[in-house]
Amino acid sequence: METANFFRQISKMDINSKLTLTIAKATDSKIIISIFIENDACGDKAKNIIPPFNLTGTPEELDNGFFDHIRKPIKTADGLISNMDSFMQQLETSKAHSAMEKNKSEKEKKNTDSKNKKFTDAMAKAEALEKRGKFKEAWSALPKVSEFPEQKEIIRKKQEMYEREFAPLFFSYDEEEEIDKTEIQTEE
Predict the structure, then answer these.
(1) What is the pTM assigned to this prediction?
(2) 3-class secondary-structure state, position 31
(3) Distances (CA, A) of 79 to 7, 16, 39, 52, 76
């Protein structure tokens, strides 16, 4: 195997990780090659527990079958690291979305709580005015149906109740005044 052929074989492997090769002489006739796979883009610390791939053989055996022996394990480890990286990215995205949803949920809850408090306060004010017999003011103090459409029935019932109390005042008349008018008309 020539050096040029070695690098062409590496480029054909189509891997996304960095390979670190360590070559050491085991005995007079055997060589040990240790291939460590790294991918700095991967944020998962589990990548650090992937052991290096070790291959032992005579120089002739390694020349003849080196790529046949390393291709599958290297591709498998590279795929694993790539999946870890993809998983970590998706996990971060999920965390971000979860935080966004949590903030959105909290904001909606605060808005709902604020709206409920406003409704409750307005109803309490109206009822306090009702107890003092100030039905017109109580009617005006009621929350607006347009602001609280979900409470429409409650508001309408209170409005009708207050209207029954103060509406007669709009159309009431003084009986003595009516009698005076009648007497004036008959005298003429």
Answers:
(1) 0.45
(2) strand
(3) 21, 8, 11, 15, 5
In this structure, what DSSP letter does residue 16 have?
S
Residue 78 near residue 17, CB atoms below 8 Å:
yes
Cα separation of 184 and 49, whole Å? 112
Is 53 within 8 Å of 34 (Cβ atoms)?
A: yes
Give dist(CA 50, CA 19) in Å, integer: 13
> What angle separates helix 152-171 from helix 59-131, to the nearest 10 degrees?
20
Q: How far apart are CA 31 and CA 100, in angstroms?
A: 55
**For 59-101, how does the pLDDT look when each residue is reduced to its tens digit (9 = 90+)?**
998 888 888 888 888 888 888 888 887 888 888 888 777 777 7
Q: How confident is the prediction for the chain on average, in pLDDT?
A: 81
Decide: 81 and 41 in contact? Cβ < 8 Å.
no
The Cα 87–Cα 78 span in angstroms is 14
The DSSP letter of residue 127 is: H
21: helix, strand or coil: strand
